[in-house]
User: Fold these one by one.
Assistant:
Number 1:
Amino acid sequence: MSSGKYLQFISFMLMFIFIILPTECKADNFPDRAGHVNDFAGLLQNKTIREFDNYLRELWISTGVEVVVLTVKHMNKLDENTYAMEIFKRWDIGATAHDGVLIFLSMKERTALIEVGYGLEQILPKDLTRSILNKNMIPSLKKNKFDEGISGGILSISTWIKAGRGNITGKVDSSLKEGG
């Protein structure tokens, strides 16, 4: 093998190892979407998943805002912001209007996050989503009451969405009880 061919071969192998292979491996870090509620960590009861999924589907139909829940066992060494943003893009949450919200939990890293699409930042600014996490979700999540914690987040987010979209009746939404 001539030195020119050898250098080409080495260049190709290095490119494969450092560029192509990591890209292929990263694709496996992200699950496929199953619906509005994607409980890959196995935290929620089946009945709760169905109730949350129906509620979020109705919210999407009535407001045009897509709220998706994702739980995972781990994030494959990615940080929560990178993982959530990648899921947001891959699953096209909120579509072209960016009217979407991702409620994200990772068990190994013990992290929870609410990611909001650009189209909803006026209705759900960072300070508000941080408050929703801290007041309506994390206290229950710390007690391993996952149905209750996620329900608290969904109810609070949906209330703000309905108010922001002028679609609120003034009644408390009883179709989704806290704690499933």
Note: Residues 21-26, 168-172 have pLDDT under 50 and may be disordered.
Number 2:
Amino acid sequence: MSLTKLENLPCYSYDDYVLWEGRWELICGVPHAMSPSPSIAHQTVSQHIASQLERALEGCNECHALLPVDWKINEETIVQPDNLVICGELEKTVYLCKTPVLIFEILSKATAQKDQTTKYKLYENANPKINGVKISMNAKTMLTKTKKEAATMSN
């Protein structure tokens, strides 16, 4: 039995992505299933982040806190950060093209590897100044990273 070479795999695009059922992310043309649904603990943390962001942004008419939404980075890459903040007018499309200013990824055993490596590199490549926050469900720690620094803070 031989392994399939990466160059022999099909490369999918946004046009393919919109036809799929269920929750998916498309990263560099490779589909990633987002199944099963997030755990109750994951959703609780996400809801807490969303409510804190809403409160923090209350006086700002330019910034918007969003829950998972398709962020179309390019034709072959569409991701869904757990929580994000966009500044400026919201787009009138079904997906987001604008790079968020702040992204939260809630890490679980199933997603930690992809979220901390592949997706984080995508975010940095989209905007080197982007602020990302990774929240570990297991260690109950929050990891933040900006272009200038990487810090670990305990809750």
Note: Residues 40-56 form the longest helix (17 residues).
